[in-house]
Design goal:
The protein is of the alpha+beta class. It has one domain (8-159). It has three helices and seven strands. The strands form two sheets. The chain has a five-stranded mixed sheet. The protein has a two-stranded antiparallel ribbon with strand order 5-6. The longest helix is centred in the first third of the chain and has 39 residues, at 8-46.
Length: 160
């Protein structure tokens, strides 16, 4: 990868950009879950008792189960948002750990939250949970170290 941040101020600014991308993804997830909860609540409240009472009760029970599941998802997303908001973006790391950006030839890893792949400033970035298996492979690695991923040996170009 060429064109990635080279000085400390650029690196810190880019870490903040990555953190902001995570925050935006989480806000979108939270909004989606809240909308689903509202829709499930409205569906449960709008159900009219039909002559087949069991059908009504089953439908209401299913709506409540969906609301509970979405409530747990909402709580998880809010906890992730709290975690990412507390994540330090003011340190430059020399070894991979939580909050580090790991630059490799074909991909960038940001050890933060397990939010999957995204594009940030036209770069492919994998947002990794610190508990993800690949994060475990990266921990304590330094620039020029290698690791095995998808049956390929990958050399780390930079860590910050």
């Amino acid at each position: 990868m060429s064109g990635y941040p080279t000085n400390d101020s650029q690196k810190l600014a880019w870490k903040q950009t990555l953190k902001n991308a995570c925050i935006q993804l989480l806000h979108a997830r939270i909004a989606h879950i809240e909308q689903a909860i509202t829709e499930a609540r409205e569906a449960a409240n709008s159900e009219e008792k039909s002559s087949a009472g069991d059908k009504y009760e089953t439908s209401r029970a299913m709506s409540h189960l969906a609301q509970e599941m979405q409530g747990r998802q909402l709580e998880d997303a809010k906890q992730e948002l709290d975690f990412i908001n507390r994540l330090n973006t003011t340190d430059i790391f020399t070894a991979a750990n939580t909050g580090a950006v790991v630059i490799c030839p074909d991909i960038i890893f940001y050890i933060s939250l397990g939010l999957g792949n995204t594009l940030v400033d036209s770069y492919k970035v994998m947002l990794l949970s610190p508990k993800a298996p690949i994060a475990g492979l990266l921990y304590r690695k330094k620039a020029a170290d290698t690791f095995e991923f998808n049956k390929k040996t990958i050399q780390i170009q930079s860590i910050f």
